Amino acid sequence: MESPCAPRSTESTPSISTTLTTPDGPADAEDVDPHFFTDPARVATAVEHLAGCMARAVPELVRTDLRQNARAYSEELTALDAELEDILAVVPAQRRVLVTDHEVFGYFADRYGFEVLGTIIPSTSSQAQADAASLSDLISLVEAEGTPAVFVSTTSSPRLAESLASQVGDVEVVELFSETLGPDGADTYTDMMRTNARRITDALT
Ligand SMILES: [Zn+2]
């Protein structure tokens, strides 16, 4: 039986997450970056997909406020997208550079005109290992570019980022909610995104 969540052939829906491109060309087909939620516009698309899939899987839901709620949340996400753009507007173009603990802010960078300079763990998985040679390259890069901050997930150990910061000097280690919601400004998805945008803005300006 076809899954109610598989896109129907008549639908031309934009994909939510995409394969990463590495400096050596396209990454492995399996290496799709799962962190699409760092771009609220993609989340709005996901909400529409989910509402359609839920309506097909559980037809009774169509008689509830499902579509109306999905539309309202999608509009909230579109407003959030504009709000994040406003928060980030004060970061000058030449400072729109992110160094993160793993490959997590690619979609955010695409959406808001940032460049991911490098990551401590060269993987979309926070469980992968850093290697000494690429960490040492990253330290040189951060030094050369004068990057003021390294961003780490609230759920990851900041040990390597702190070691990088202490070797370069004058680099702040800033926690972002990149893997999960949390207390102090990340109770909901929209609050999480606002808090991240404010912390990124504060660290880079
Ligand atoms: Zn992650």
How do the strands and helices of this protein lay out in sequence?
Layout: E1 21-22, E2 25-26, H1 40-57, H2 66-88, E3 97-100, H3 106-112, E4 115-119, H4 132-145, E5 149-153, H5 159-168, E6 172-176, H6 189-204
Parallel strand pairs: 3-4, 5-6
Antiparallel strand pairs: 1-2
Helix pairs in contact: 1-2, 2-6, 4-5
The structure holds zinc ion.
Q: Name the bound molecules.
A: zinc ion
Q: What is the overall silhouette?
A: elongated
Which residue ranges are poorly predicted, with pLDDT under 50 across at least 5 consecutive positions?
none
Largest sheet: 2 strands, antiparallel
Number of domains: 2
User: What number is the mean pLDDT?
Assistant: 89
Spatial order of the strands in the main sheet? 1-2
What is the top-level CATH class of the largest domain? Alpha Beta
So, the CATH homologous superfamily of the largest domain? Nitrogenase molybdenum iron protein domain
Report strand %: 5-15%
Helix content: 40-55%
Topology order in helix (H) and strand (E) letters: EEHHEHEHEHEH
CATH topology of the largest domain: Rossmann fold
Q: What is the end-to-end distance? A: 53 Å
Number of strands: 6
Q: What is the CATH architecture annotation of the largest domain?
A: 3-Layer(aba) Sandwich
Number of helical stretches of at least 4 residues: 6
Main structural class = alpha/beta
CA radius of gyration: 19 Å
